[in-house]
Automatic annotation (TrEMBL):
Protein residues bound to substrate: 32, 56, 79, 137
Binding site for Mg(2+): 14
GO biological process, one term: amino acid biosynthetic process
Binding site for ATP: 10-15, 118
Keyword Metal-binding: yes
Gene giving rise to this polypeptide: aroK
Keywords carried by this UniProt record: Amino-acid biosynthesis, Aromatic amino acid biosynthesis, ATP-binding, Cobalt, Cytoplasm, Kinase, Lyase, Magnesium, Metal-binding, Multifunctional enzyme, NAD, Nucleotide-binding, Transferase, Zinc
Quaternary state and interactors: Monomer.
Keyword Iron-sulfur annotated: no
Cellular component GO terms, alphabetical: cytoplasm
One Gene Ontology molecular-function label: magnesium ion binding
Chain's role: Catalyzes the specific phosphorylation of the 3-hydroxyl group of shikimic acid using ATP as a cosubstrate.
Family statement: Belongs to the shikimate kinase family.
Name by which UniProt lists this protein: Shikimate kinase
Length: 167
């Protein structure tokens, strides 16, 4: 079985995914970690040196490989992985997919207090950028059938609700 936690940047995908992997005894993967290891560069460097389109290609390849494997796993993809139609369909076909929701204001505050550098939010008006990305991506996140409010529930509560949904 494969479980995929989608959602916007800072929604808590990795935290929930790690709890689930632990409880199910599945391997945990974070696509950004795998991309950094393969490219031997940080996500920030990849965006600066090679550009976002290149990052999206590597992201698609790495997530595709995981989804086509035989392994039981829990995956935390980057928040933009849903943008690619083929990849989004592959996730929905191959995995139990869930989406964590978060408001723009909360993304701004979580991102400020996070050590992870997210190149898309390194701009003069991050709240404006977050709002425009959320609007642009909403239709893709809405294709995911089950959503959880990451501001209302803790990561542990969301993990328990997901465990109740899967066989
Ligand atoms: C991105 C999300 C990031 C990372 C990259 C781009 C996005 O991952 O993949 O900075 O486009 O939403 P997180 O969602 O884990 O922050």
């Amino acid at each position: 079985m494969k479980i995929v936690l989608t959602g916007f940047m800072t929604a808590g995908k990795t935290t929930v995914a790690k709890i689930l992997a632990d409880k199910k005894n599945f391997n945990f993967y974070d696509s950004d970690d795998l991309i950094e290891a393969r490219e031997k560069m940080s996500i920030e460097e990849i965006f600066t040196v090679k550009g976002e389109d290149y990052f999206r290609e590597v992201e698609k390849d790495i997530i595709g490989e995981l989804l086509n494997s035989d392994e039981d796993l829990v995956l935390s993809p980057g928040g933009g992985a849903v943008l690619n139609d083929e990849l989004r369909q592959l996730m929905l076909n191959q995995a139990e997919v869930f989406c964590l929701d978060v408001s723009a204001e909360e993304v701004l505050s979580r991102n400020k207090n996070d050590e992870i550098v997210r190149p898309l939010l390194e701009v003069d008006n991050p709240l404006g950028k977050i709002n425009s990305l959320l609007t642009e991506r909403e239709k893709y996140y809405q294709e995911i059938p089950i959503h959880f409010d990451s501001e209302r529930y803790s990561a542990a509560e969301i993990a328990d609700q997901i465990l109740a949904e899967i066989p």
